[in-house]
User: What shape does this take?
Amino acid sequence: MIDLQFNLEKDLVFFDIESTGLNVLKDRILQVAFIKYSKGTPEPKELFLLINPGIPISDEAFAVHGINNEMIRNKPTFAQVGKEIFDFVGDADLAGYNSDRFDVPMLMEEFHRVGIHFDISKRRLIDIQKIFYKMEPRTLKAAYRLYCDGDLSDAHDALADTKATVEVFKGQILRYADVNYIDGDGFSHPAPIKNDIDAIASFIKDDSALDVTQRLKLNAKGQVVFNFGKYSGQTVYDVFTQEPNYYHWMMEKDFSAQVKQIIKKIFDEMKKN
Assistant: This one.
């Protein structure tokens, strides 16, 4: 175990969630673990709960966490333990692995269902996965060393870099042809890194989704646009300007709390202006 004391000004809670599936709106939490570090306290506090989600566990989720319906049949519901979780977390900052995309919005939805407002606007969110992605070398030279087992001596010469890129791509295709990859939610998939340009392009495409349900995303101009329905591709601002009732319709319908928070902020700014 690494001997390091966190330098804290407020509580920091690490947490992880296991659920009935990956749909933040329809699936439910069935297991939570929290570890809270506090300033001046040498030992962290822990909270670990099994929760009866009230709905069946999908086969895909069971394959990941191994929790079956019988194991949580007699456990409390989230409505029964939500206040305990809320009090344990308090006003702490939140940390996890891939937590910004899944664990945080899933927890927010569960709180929302039982009438507890869980505000994250004043919390710092520490997604450990993002640190990993930012700090691991992503240079062409590092890639050449990894996939081609050699050193790129002429780095930053345009032709040398282009030729090296070709070799790296070939190396990736050979290395990953028969390798599965683990997605951000822990599920294993056959990696489409094979000699198929269309498959590879689809695999690495990023739509810049703003929420885990992928109802909203950023366009090339950095504007928030709809990613569903009749207004797909149109900016939220333009749609609400032309049809403000669409905002009210969305607030009444089965959209995630995360989506509603985003569109409410845009709508409130429009009213101010």
Observations:
- The two ends are 53 Å apart (CA to CA).
